[in-house]
Amino acid sequence: KQEVTQIPAALSVPEGENLVLNCSFTDSAIYNLQWFRQDPGKGLTSLLLIQSSQREQTSGRLNASLDKSSGRSTLYIAASQPGDSATYLCAVRISPGTYKYIFGTGTRLKVLA
Amino acid sequence: GAGVSQTPSNKVTEKGKYVELRCDPISGHTALYWYRQSLGQGPEFLIYFQGTGAADDSGLPNDRFFAVRPEGSVSTLKIQRTERGDSAVYLCASSQDRAETQYFGPGTRLLVL
Fold first, then answer.
1. Closest chain B CA to residue A35
2. What does the mean pLDDT of chain B come to?
3. B25 at interface of A, judged by CB pairs closer than 8 A
4. In this complex, is the C-beta atom of A48 within 8 Å of any C-beta atom belonging to chain B?
5. What's the CA gap between B32 and B75, in Å, rounded?
6. Which region holds residue B82: left if phi is over 0, alpha if psi is between -120 and 50, else beta?
7. HSE of A30 in the Cβ direction (CA atoms, 13 Å)?
8. Which of B34, B100, B48 is nearest to A50 (CA)?
9. Mean pLDDT lowest among B57-61, B69-73, B96-100, B103-107
10. Taking a C-beta distance cutoff of 8 angstroms, is the pair A34, A91 a contact?
């Protein structure tokens, strides 16, 4: 059974720092992995999608990497800003035959001004 | 443009009652998803519709939960004989055909007393 874990559960950093959020999954046979952002009381916003054949994806100050063999993904945020404060969730899609995503519990990020 | 909307935003009910939660997807999106998110957890997949049909309902926890999408647009999640453990935020998302990017609504916060 696929399980997704995110460490740390919470993180507080000063503005301007570069930071890394971690996501690990127990079964390396995934179809793709997505990183989402969730603001309090809001739905999720997709940030980056990495297909199983890819190693990384970049969007602006965000870079996500995927190492399937070790069951890990990282989300790198450069030059963090207070507006980056949110919960970041990773989710894996286990096969092309299902649209079911398995989510981690998230990392609550607070960027201090 | 209009995003995914969900009504009601909050619902308080008593144990044993029946509730309906509504999701209006983005116009033209054929795929629709329901998730449940408990406090401090990531979203948990419930059901996925492609058009009017439920393509994957493997996440529905038991037969008290049922969802419909009769005209391929609006969807209703129905919960019978509610239990206190059903309390959670119910999230809806839609996507274009089988595109990966899911657009989430703000959720319905259900509290069963």
1. B101
2. 93
3. no
4. no
5. 8
6. beta
7. 34
8. B100
9. B96-100
10. yes
A32-89 residue pLDDT tens = 999 999 998 888 999 999 999 999 999 999 999 999 999 999 999 999 999 999 999 9
Structure tokens at A39: 């603001």
d(CA A94, CA A17): 33
Mutation site for B-interface testing, chosen from A31, A36, A44, A87 by largest number of B Cβ within 10 Å: A44
- Residue B1 confidence class, pLDDT cut points 50, 70, 90: low
Model pLDDT for residues B25-46, shown as the tens digit of each residue: 999 999 999 999 998 899 999 9
| Contact check, Cβ <8 Å, B93/A105 | no
Beta-carbon contacts of residue B15 (< 8 Å; ≥ 6 apart): B82, B83, B84, B112, B113
The answer to whether the Cβ–Cβ distance between A99 and B58 falls below 8 Å is no
Taking CB atoms and an 8 Å cutoff, what residues of chain B touch A45? 104
Say if residues A72 and A24 touch (Cβ distance below 8 Å): yes
Per-residue pLDDT, A41: 81
Burial (Cβ within 10 Å: 0-12, 13-18, ≥19) of residue A53: exposed
The residues near B112 (Cβ < 8 Å, ≥ 6 apart) are B13, B14, B15, B17, B82, B83, B84, B85, B86, B87
